[in-house]
Amino acid sequence: MSWINFPPFTSSNIASIRYEDAQAILEVTFHNGGTYQYYDVPTQVVEDFKRAGSMGAFLASSIKGHYRYSKV
Residue limits of the KTSC domain (predicted)? Predict the structure, then answer.
């Protein structure tokens, strides 16, 4: 797998985000240490996520509850 890291950002909840475009896996690591992978996330959604004013708000409204996920 070839992961693409998000550019640096500031978030009170999210520590890092990366995306594997060949398999459409979005991986989110939280400051509390938890890491989740969301599956079948389209590239356009990932691009919108990168431009979001609030990473946490975008995750809550556009990722969680919309895509299958697992805790890593």
Answer: 10-67
Asked whether the beta carbons of 17 and 28 are under 8 A apart, the reply is: yes
Match 């609030």 to its residue by tokens: 54
- Give pLDDT tens digits along the chain (72 positions): 799 999 999 999 999 999 999 999 999 999 999 999 999 999 999 999 999 999 999 999 999 999 999 999
User: What does the buried/exposed string (b/e) look like for 36-50 if buried means 16 or more CB atoms within 10 Å of the residue's CB?
Assistant: bbbeebeeebbeebe
Q: Which two tokens stand for residue 23?
A: 């398999």
Nearest one of 51, 23, 28 to 39, comparing CA atoms: 23
What's the CA gap between 55 and 46, in Å, rounded? Answer: 11
Rg (CA), the chain: 11
